[in-house]
Structure formats: structure tokens, C-alpha cells
Protein 1
Amino acid sequence: MTFQPSPLQLERDAYRRRQTILSVAVAAVSTLVVGILLYAAVTGAPGWDRFRASFLSAEAARDSLPAVLRGLWLNVQLLVVCAIAAVLLGLGIATLRTIRPAVFFPLRALAAGYTYTFRGLPLIVTLYLFAFGVPGLRLSGTPSVLVLGGIAIVLTYGGYIAEVFRAGIESVHPSQRAAARSLGLTYRQTMRHVVLPQAVRRVAPPLLNDLVAMQKDVGLISLAGPIDAIRAAQIETAGSYNYTPYVVAGILFVLLAIPVVAVTDWVTLRAARRQSGDNRL
Amino acid sequence: MTVLSISGVHKLFNGNPVLRGVSLDVDEHEVVALIGASGSGKSTLLRCVNLLEQVDDGTIHLDGRDITDPRADPDQVRRRIGIVFQAFNLFPHLSVLDNVTLAPLRVHRMPKAQARAKALALLERVGLADKAAAYPDRLSGGQQQRVAIVRALVNDPRLLLLDEVTSALDPELVGEVLALIRDLKGDGVTMILATHEMSFARQVADRVCFLDGGLIVEQGPPEQVFGAPREPRTRQFLQRITDAGRL
Ligand SMILES: Nc1ncnc2c1ncn2[C@@H]1O[C@H](COP(=O)(O)OP(=O)(O)OP(=O)(O)O)[C@@H](O)[C@H]1O
Ligand SMILES: [Mg+2]
């Protein structure tokens, strides 16, 4: 026998459907109104025509796109390498900061000093110090400016990521450690198999958020000289006195961020569901 | 044969004495129940035996070896003692099977197939073989505690410590855990259990120890401790419990 809803239930379902249609309609209308108002305000501005010519020129966009895209590839490579390095560095620093035995005090202090310093130091200062300061030492075997700039980014973000991991490690209930140690697992095994897996799961959303921020900041490498997307846009601009290449680079950065942001949202949502154990709330 | 020998153990927390010279010998296959008011130090004593707390005086011998000697390797000692806590036992990121096989694989370096087979056999015994792939948050409290006991047993511990394993459970789930403990006693597992379940202590324990003021005030067979307590403090404690309807 199949389930036959009562007239009461049918009436409720119909009401809910009507409500849904109504709210979709309201949202559509209000979006349209806001859109029209914004459009009118911007295009009605006194300097609109000049703005459009120097920032939104289709011709300049077409001309600059290949160079900016080539530069973007450098950003992508830099991002991948820096992200992996910063996560590993952050994990290492966070682990050092949570080691209890007294003999490790110097390491702990060093790790703490590192996170304080590099979280406080503006990235641009770190970048200049590494890209221009280090070569000034004239040491043999000094890596390229690109590598030095990458190191600056990794050091800065490693500090943030270390704090994210540390919060995650400390959020694991102490009785989990006790349970692991009482099974005979060593300190390292407890970290590796019990504490870190739980910590990493919990901090995945804020961690991905840091990666999104990092993705923008790899563009700062252009200040040190390597020809990435921003630098390419700058070169194009210098030739044509048109700022559209910057807008092109900006749009490309946003497009690049969309997948990472989408993954972040998805992971956050999944984590929230897991915690509440309920898929509907 | 004496498995565990606790002698003159003291433990202080921030200068406050919690244990003031506890002595207790546990024989092979013996089941000892620790009873006493909340805060009397039952958990502390068990944690000292498992070296999760460091004693401030006295000695604890396991199979004749002094485990309170700072030169003893705590990891080695813990491998031979199983402990199950009141709550927060299982690792939430691992399936039931992975919870149980973690120590055999990582600590005892058992081959994977063997560890799985052993874990599944034990889970089967406690009626949870069908939950092997489930995660702890999908299990009832009673099921979780049974898995925690299996996880301790899979290492063939010389001694099993159970710290109020039923006190976080709803009354209808207590029975299944107590039945398992009774089974283990039948198998000859040496156990110390801290408990508030007086009727259970009475049925399953070979010896009952009443802890009060940091000392074992009275110990003996359950009939004697519950039926004809010698010490006035034991009598008072049991009277309070009876008044609360828990005996
Ligand atoms: N880590 C700690 N730091 C400070 N005090 C502690 C600590 N652990 C336990 N204590 C104190 O030691 C005393 C004994 O605690 P313990 O947990 O051993 O009691 P218990 O007999 O197990 O009680 P319950 O029946 O409520 O579980 C309590 O007064 C408690 O506050
Ligand atoms: Mg306790």
C-alpha cells in the first residue's frame, strides 16, 4: 500500500509551494531593481565615458590578454609551490609549538618568535627584504628573485597557517591523547594518527581561506620584478596608457579564485553538517 | 600470582593530597572493584597505574617490575595495561575497525590481515561485527563503550582498568556493557574497575575496596564489605547510597 497524504498535508504542501514561488519572484524583482539603479548611477556619472575608455576598452583587453595570461601561469605555479610549502611549514611550526617536554623549550620559543614576527611584518616589507636585501649580501649561490619572493610569501603565510593548525591541535580533547597514549602509542604516533588527523579536519575551512588570500598575494611578486600577470599588465599599460590590462588581470584572478572559494564553501558546509550530525539544519 | 602490587602510593594535585598511601595487590584473574564517593580518587589511582599520572610517592609493580621507576619506559608499560574511560574513548575520525586495529598495527606491528581478523573476531563476540565500518558517532553510547573495551582487549593486556565505564550511559544501555564485563571475568581477565554500580560490584567483584580520604579504608569480599562493613565510614557511605536508592 502506498502512502496517501491527507487533505491537510496536501493543503500544507500547496501552501509551501506557493511560498517558494513568491519568495523567488520577490528576489528576482529586487535584484533587477538594484541592478538598474546601480547601472544608472555608474553610467550616469560625469566621468563615465573617460573611465570606460581607459579601463574597459575591449581593444586593449584583446591586445593584452595573451601577455597577461602568460604571466598568470607564473602566478599559478608560484601559488601551488608556495601553498604546499606554507602548509608544511605551518604544520611543522604548529607541532613544535605544542610539544610539552622542557628540553624543547628553545625550539618552542623559536617557533613562537617566528609566528609573532612574520604575522606582524607586512608582506610587502618581507618581500622587499628578501628580493632586494638578500641579493645585496652578495653570497654565492643566491637564488633568483622569483625564488626569494616565493620564500617571503611562504614565510608570511606559514605564520598564519601555523596558528590555524595550532588552534586545531589544541581543540582536540585531551582525553583523546590520553586514550591514544594508554594504548601504548608514542607521542609521535599519537600526534600522527590521532591528534593531527582530527585537527586538520577541523581547520580545513580556515586553511582554505588562507589559501584564497595567498592566491591574491602571489601577485605582489610583481613588485620584485618577475613577469607575472600583474607585471605583464603593467608593461602593457606603459605602452598604451590604457589601464584595461589591470582589469583583465583582476578578472583572471577572480576566475582563478572561484574554484578554491567553491571548494572552501563546500568543505565548510560538510564540516558543519558533520558536527551537527543533521543534514537539514 | 600477583599481577599488580601498589604500595604506599601518594598523589597530590597542587599540594592537595588525593591519595595518601594507597596499597593494593591484585592477583591474576582477580576482579577488584574500587568504590568510594565522587572525588575520592578512584580515577586518579587508575591513572597512576597506567602512568597517565606520575605518583608523588610509593611504588607500583607490574609482574614484579617497578613501573614507577623513572627509568621505566611508560609506553612499554601502557602496552601491557588496557584502560577504558568514562567517555570520549573512541577516535571519532576512525571507523570502529580502525579504532580497534590502531594499536595492534602501530604499536605491536601485527600484520594487517591478522589484526583485522582478531579485531573482527572480538567485535563479533560483543555483537558489533556489523558495525565494523561505522564511525563512532553513529553508535549508541553502550555500543561505543563495548568497542572501547574491545579496543583495549585486542592488545591482550595483562591488566584491564575500567573507570566508571557505565556512568555516562542511559540506564537501558548499562546492562549490555555490564554483561560484557561479566563475560570477561569468565575468561579470567584481571581487572580493576572503579564503579558507582554497587549491585554490579557485588555480583562481579572478587574483592571490593572502599576508598575514602585518600586511603583504602576497608577491603574484602563483597559479601563482607556490603553485608557487614567493619568501618563506620564504609557504613555511612553505603547508607547514603542506599538512601539514594542505588543499592
Ligand atoms: N588533573 C587534576 N588537577 C587537579 N586536581 C585533580 C586532577 N585530577 C583530579 N583532581 C582532583 O582529585 C580528586 C580525585 O579525583 P578523581 O577523579 O580521582 O575522583 P573519583 O573518585 O574518580 O571521582 P568520580 O567518582 O566523580 O569519578 C578530586 O578532588 C579532583 O578534583
Ligand atoms: Mg572518576
Protein 2
Amino acid sequence: MAGTPNGELMTGAEIVLKALADQGVSTVFGYPGGAVLPIYDEFFQQEKVKHILVRHEQGATHAAEGYARSTGKVGVVLATSGPGATNCVTGLTDALLDSIPMVCLTGQVPTHLIGNDAFQECDTVGITRPCTKHNWLVKDVNDLARIIHEAFYVARTGRPGPVVVDIPKDVQFAKGKYVGPQGITAKTYAPRVKPDQNAVRAAIDLLATARRPILYTGGGVINSGPTASKLLREFVAMTGIPITSTLMGLGAYPASGPEWLGMLGMHGTYEANMAMHDCDVMVCVGARFDDRITGRLDAFSPGSKKIHIDIDPSSINKTVKVDIPVIGDVGHVLEDMIRLWKSRSLKLDAKALADWKAQIAKWKAVDCLKYTPNRDVIMPQYAIERLYELTKDKDCYISTEVGQHQMWAAQFYRFEEPNRWMTSGGLGTMGYGLPAAVGMQAAHPKSLCICVAGDASVLMNMQEMSTAIQHRLPIKVFILNNQYMGMVRQWQQLLHGNRLSESYMDSLPDFVKLAEAYGGTGIRCDKPADLDDAIREMIAAKGPVLFDCRVANLANCFPMIPSGKAHNEMILGSEIKDEEVGNVIDSKGKQLV
Amino acid sequence: MNAAHLTGTGSAYFLEEKKQEAEAHTLAVIAENQPGVLARIIGLFAGRGYNIDSLTVSETEHEKHVSRFTIVTTGTPAVIAQIKNQLERMVPVHSVADLTVSGNYLARELAMVKVAGKGDKRVEALRLADAFRARVVDASTDSFVFELTGKPDKVDQFISLMVPLGLVEVSRTGVAAILRGPEAMKG
Ligand SMILES: Cc1cc2nc3c(=O)[nH]c(=O)nc-3n(C[C@H](O)[C@H](O)[C@H](O)COP(=O)(O)OP(=O)(O)OC[C@H]3O[C@@H](n4cnc5c(N)ncnc54)[C@H](O)[C@@H]3O)c2cc1C
Ligand SMILES: Cc1ncc(C[n+]2csc(CCOP(=O)(O)OP(=O)(O)O)c2C)c(N)n1
Ligand SMILES: [Mg+2]
């Protein structure tokens, strides 16, 4: 098959493999079934594209997300028709909300059976239409190569996202012409990447007058690629503007950087949220004013002028009205802003900036992430701090599941580089983290790939441990085991009179035995004094590890801006006692999610 | 930070939310005529809770596989702007124009109106049809089908006049719209 010149007839299945190879795809996450057997037959006969057999198609989608986010490349999934396709829906939706580039190829019943309720038939393009950027049903083998190349183009261009190509079985068998990827785009899809220079100028003019500026950065900086992170650092160094980031943007600016305020939003730091509230000029760089960020909209940063840099015009003025929109790719926009700032030798008012930073220093002094240490029980915050200290000098990638542990990881693990942090932000998909770690490890076989998990979430795609064992992917699953759906319990405490309906995790498995049952290593630790050694043992282990880290069961995650409150109405962990937890949110706030 | 904020709401920064009025806008959308494109557009409106007051679609350039949609929708200016942006970022969409914002445009609709009756009512229906320049496209001894083209409010008016005269059934196409003047639509 290799080296077939353009124009020679190939089967649809051969075309799929050739197109993947020509797109530079090295790894596909998939699961076979009747409607994709011709494609699997081709996998068998080639070596360019590696196939990683997962244990559930949802696992394949999250693995592809982990692969994509940790490399900047497009993640690729292959699944069969019917149940294979429907199992992909959660991962596609996750990728759509978090702007992750993904191509998902699905098999479909033969063209003449479509619409007949054939065996394992489902309306894949219908089901996935609202959870993809675009999708295609290929009815003619001669369109197949072009559509696959178009699919890759759409997935990675502009605001990245997932796409589906649904390929009926007869199309996989039929012979048709192959075309290469050169010059194939989607003719109607050409998002603007270079900004309007007038907008850039207006942004710089406004910024230069700022007395209390802040940069609010997000996942768009990561999407834009490593250059954008470099430019962001240069921009901060040049202007001295304090910077915060969303959950999705962590690592774009280093946590050790002098202007870093920590994450903002619902579980963000006091200093970041107060600075957002009180700033006079806000520059939003590739973030989308999500409700976890804004809190109460009518009290969101009431006194500021807002500049919004985003590649997707539909992100502008969606929830928060901004003063200066700059449409374009973060990298291009920052490049232009830096050039303009330099060429005009601009400088912020030094006295005002110093006062602003003095104010920020006071907020920092509140020490909002402080927690009460404990000598007998491992505090979850302590567990993440130790994990960070013992892995920070290593080449490390971190994924998370969803819940309190996710927020603690975001607060206490300090990211220095982009693409090192994989988490399900927009959809908040429990079951994301373990398979995402499989995908990260597949992309970075030599690196240390850790999933920070919760006892409940980790069970949602636990079967992917088997994938990790089979493919020698030595992922480390660090479970903060509090025997609760901690985040659910926290909300029940805050909103539902401490009635803990179904949030206790009864009958949890023995994670050590479970690890061993899969052929991996199990480690348990429940003493703070033993934790460092146990983490070292995990790092040193050759294969996959399930680490059952027994943490304080009832710890809650603070600071927190309760739903319906403003940034300056944050609850700090140090000032809230368990008895008060139920009175913090009023009835109106309780209706929000 | 003090304990006060732990109870009740009431931010010191309460801002009166400016309630914008909803307005009707007519959008023209040029899109690839590929399978599912109508479902995509309707799905966008349904999924995001936008209104569709009227929607018409037909292929306008056969060789280029291009279709034109005319969508009449109601929303606040902010929602209308979102709708336009959301439509524009759809992969098969070439361009979107808000005709209401662009200004001077023509909007027409075709209706077929069936009226049954005898005697004076029948005569009166025919007389009104003539005044509205509706054509009789079918007739029996006790019924007419009128064909009427015009602005939607003219069609509305005609239909309401037919109600007391024996209106039986109406079929309307929805609005087709185009800008006046020599230029083609810009996105
Ligand atoms: C339990 C839980 C709690 C959470 N709490 C918090 C919290 O406290 N704080 C927090 O921040 N988040 C929190 N989140 C995550 C939150 O739900 C959102 O996912 C997140 O805030 C969105 O991040 P973002 O704004 O960076 O947008 P993203 O979803 O990353 O979107 C990126 C934006 O950048 C744009 N963009 C993409 N590529 C480019 C490019 N190349 N150039 C320019 N623009 C581009 C996109 O159009 C989009 O508007 C929480 C999630 C969960 C599950
Ligand atoms: C698939 C899915 N179902 C339900 C939820 C709602 N949910 C959010 S956090 C959470 C509990 C997570 O518990 P665990 O994994 O133990 O994490 P912890 O909060 O205890 O750290 C639940 C059920 C979700 N986010 N995803
Ligand atoms: Mg838990």
C-alpha cells in the first residue's frame, strides 16, 4: 500500500490508512467491530500508524484528547458503528467544550442499508451533529480521501474541535482514487487568524493608560501553540502586568513567574479574583468568560474596560460585554501587540502599577490556600504539594478526573510549561483522567504521566488500566481517596442542609488488589509520614500504578465563590467552620449550578 | 473579608441589568448545499434556544451547490449578534448577512389561501382578492384557491380578511428576502 502514487485505485480501507499516514498520524485509539473490519484488516498489514486497543470507546476519545492536548497534534479515534459510535459521544462533547482537535472515524452499515434499522445501525451524523465542529457521512469512495483531509483541517484550524467521519462498510471495500492532503482545506471555512490592526492599536492605546491592569488568560493560549506561551511571557516581562489564568490555561505562564496570581474563578485564589474585581483594564487572552469565572455577571469586574482576544467571534460578547474585541490567533495578536508596544516605547504609569502591586501583595498575604495541617491524616492539599515537590524536576504530564481533587491539583500543582496539564474543564467529565493519561503516555513514552484521580471518578473508566498494561504505558494513577464524591458532598453541605444523599462511596474496591488484578502495581498510603516514600515508590515503579492515597474524608475545597456571588464575596477555608457551611448561599444562589 | 458576606446576598456593586428589547431580524445565509445542512442550521437554533419565525431555503446556484436561507428571527440585539456569529462559524456556511441591519431590503412571501362559501361572501372574497392582486389558481362552484405574493404583513392582512368569508386552509412559503440596489450580498 505504501507509496501508491496519486490517482491509482485503492480500496476505501487502504485510503483511510494512507490518509492517516499522510496526515502524520502516528497513533490511533480504537476498538474494532463489524463495520470497521476492513480498516482493521489494513492496520494489520502496515506499520506506519500504531493502533492502541482501548477497552471502551469512551476511553479512546479521552485518550485521544490527552494525546492531542499534550502534543498539540490532532487526536485520532476509530470506532465501529452503532454502540461504538454512541460510546464516543461523551468524549466528542468533552473535546468540543474544551476546544480539543480530534478526528473520530466511525464505521457505518453499508450504504444500501442506511435507514433500515440494520444491525448496529445508528444515525451517527445525526447523533454527533451537536457535539462536533462538523461531521461527514461518506457515500462515495472517491470522496473519502478528500473528506478525511478536510476533517483534519477543520479539527485543527481556528478554534480547534472534534469532527466525525462516518464511513459505510461498502465504501471501505469499494475502490476509488486517492488524493493527498496538499492544499485541501474546507472551502467555506477560513477563520481569521491575523488581527485587524486597528483593533490591536485600540487595545494597546487603552492598555497604556491602565493603572490597575490584569491579564486573564485561558485555554486559547495553549491552543495557539508553544509560541503563544513564549510571547505571553515576553509580554508580561515587558509590561509588568499581573496575570491570572483559567483552569484550561494553566502552564502558559509559569507558576514561578513574578507576576503570577494563581488560577481565578470559583476555586481560584483570593488575589486573582480580587484583582479581577478591582482592575481598571482587563485583557482576556483566549478565554471565554465562563460562568465558573464570572460568578455573578452583574457584579463581574464592574469598573473595568475589557479587551478580548479570541479566534472565535462567537466568544465575543457572549456573556460579558467587552470594549475592544480583537479577533485572531493569540500568537499573532500578541506578536503585534509586542511589536507595537515596543515601537512606541510605551510604559505603564510606574507609580500606579507599584500601588496596584502593593494592593495585590496585601491580598496575597491572606494566604487563601492555607489549610490546617494534620500529623495523623493526609490532607488532600498536602498530598498534591508532596506530589508536586517530588515530581517537579521530572519531565511530567498531569491529568485529572473531576471533583475536589481536580481543583486541589489546579491549586497546588505548579505548572511551568504549557501542554503539561490535561483536565476536563467545560464538560467536567468524570472518567476523563485515566484514559487521558493513557493518551499522554502513548505520546510521551519516556515521560512521567500522572493522573490525579478521585475514588469515584476513577471507577468510571477503570477498564483502561488494562489498555495501559497491554501497551506498556506506565501511567501513575494517584487517587485522592476520601470515600466520597467529595465535590457533590461539598455542594450538599453548602446547598442542601448537609443531607448527603448518595454521595458516600460505599463498597469501594480494594484499589491495591485491583491494580494487581490488572497486572499493575498497587500502593496504599494513609500516613503523612509515609507519603514521600510511597510517592517515590510510585515514580520508580516500571509499570502502571494505582496509588490509593487515603486522605481526610471531609475536607472541602476552598477558596470558593458560591454560585450567584461576586468575586469579592469569596469564602475562604480559614474562616468557615463546618456548622456554617450550610448558610453561606442564599436561596437564589442555590438554584444555580 | 468579614463574616457579613457569609449570609444573604446584596453585592455592593449591584448593577441594573439593561433589559434590551427583542427585535425581529431577517438574516440571509449562503451555505453549501450538502446533506444535513438544513438540519445543522435548525439544530443550532433549537439547541441554543433561538427563535425561528420563518425559514425558507432553496438551492440558488446549482453548479456551485450553493443554497440560500432566509431566516426571520426575534431576539435582543446581543442575541441576534450571537446568532450571526454562531451561523458564520459553521463549516458549510459561506456568509451571513443581517438584512435588517444592512438596511433597504425586499421581503416577499407567497401564500395559497383556500376560501369556501357561496353568495355574497363569495363575491366579496373575489373582490378583495382583486384589490390585493391575488390570483385565482383554482375554483369550484363553492370555493377558490387564491395565490398571493407580497410582504408578510400584506399576506397576514389578506388572510385575516378571508376569515369571515369562509377561510378553509392556508399554505405559506415563508419569507424570501434580498437587498435593493446593484450589489450582491456581503457577509
Ligand atoms: C468542578 C469544576 C470546577 C471548575 N472551577 C473552575 C475555576 O475555579 N476556575 C476556572 O478557571 N475554571 C474552572 N472550571 C473550568 C471551567 O468550567 C471552564 O472549562 C474554564 O474556565 C474555561 O476556560 P477558558 O475560558 O480558558 O476557555 P476554553 O474552554 O479553553 O476556551 C478557549 C477560548 O479561547 C479561544 N481560542 C481557542 N484557540 C484560540 C487561538 N488559537 N487564539 C485565540 N483564541 C483561541 C476559544 O475560541 C475560546 O473562546 C471548573 C471545572 C470543573 C469541572
Ligand atoms: C460523568 C459525570 N457524572 C457526574 C458528575 C457530577 N460530579 C461532579 S464531581 C463528582 C464527584 C467526584 O467524586 P471523586 O471522583 O471521588 O472526586 P472528589 O470530589 O471526591 O475529589 C460528581 C458525581 C460528573 N462531573 N461527571
Ligand atoms: Mg472522592
